[in-house]
Amino acid sequence: MNVASAILKPRIIAAFIAFSMVAGMPASALAVSGTSGDRYFIPSTRAFWRNTMGARHVFEDGFTADLSDFQLRVAKFAGLRPIPVKKFNILEDALVKESVSPTPLTTPSVSVPWGVRMMLNDESLKHTSGGAGVTVALLDTGVDREHPDLKSHITTCDDFADPERSLVEDSCADLNGHGTHMAGIIGADGGPTGDGLYGFAPQASISVYRTCNNAGTCLSDDIAVAMRTAVDRGANIIVLGLGGESESSFVNDAIAYAKDKNVLVVVAAGNDGPYDDSLDWPARNSSVIAVGAIDNEKVAAEFSSRGTNRTSKAYQPNDGDIELAAPGVNIESTFRDGGYAILSGTSMAAPHIAGLAARLWQKDAAHPAQATRFLLHEMAHDIAPAGDDGATGWGMPVMAAH
Fold first, then answer.
1. Which fold has domain 88-397?
2. Coil/strand/helix, residue 290
């Protein structure tokens, strides 16, 4: 027997035994047993394994599935090399008690929150406008699509985080509140009477893709598929208020796909500050705008993750750098059940940049996303410490005075 045969024989036997274990039961029985398990990527393109493991998402080089302990044993026994799917979480500041369990308000305390007024450079603002013809895709915990300040321009509402199905169309209920809060910063329109709250771009369309469950956990395969779906449906801007400690090839590939299609991706930096080199993924990816948080005194929030700007080339996007800063402390916005709430976190900062980008969208440029990103750089006001620093990057973009 040659060496190649000696190596292959155990694998063939293992595959045969694994096949025998599952061949005697309906494929559906094996697939259903994995719905409450952990998510894995199976690097196999065989339809047999997709069917028996209950594939959730299919990629070019394999598929993901929620595997029960039994399925996981079968997959390992068959030599399929299952790989755990990376998890992310929503990024509100866990150090601020009010951010974790906010007390919803029935009416807004102001019509235009302080962060919007600061970046639009008009403290007397009573309402806002802008964003017509621009679509912002929000990937988060969903949205309260019946909120009076949002309902008129939620144009897409799909659920990629349902535990049983990979996609539930026309469903994106937000039982957490985080996604609804981000949506209001982007484009709340004051409601039918004008007595509600206003965001940056109330004429923009908001496409909502629920990619995080009610507890705020977001799986990278769901995020990646939702991002690609948003791009294919014509999104101009994608905003993510989520992050994690490790890199995901699924999400990186989706970001590259968005960039290639002239879609601007804006991501919360993370809440692991004030330590250098503490950015979360995917904010570390230089193809996205990583956004740090500041307070109403234009001071970087202590919780806001810091970048590697001190050691990288200044004023250019680098992996691991903060690019821009925006208000992210005590931010009032829309919330679940038709209410309002005050939250803190870099998740609140990122939609400030996404909303401003919607107002400024350079639709006539050859590369609109790149042109809009450059314009945000041009409008950035430096925030101490001076220069391209790891807390605030270029600084905070501010509209010219009226």
1. Rossmann fold (3.40.50)
2. strand
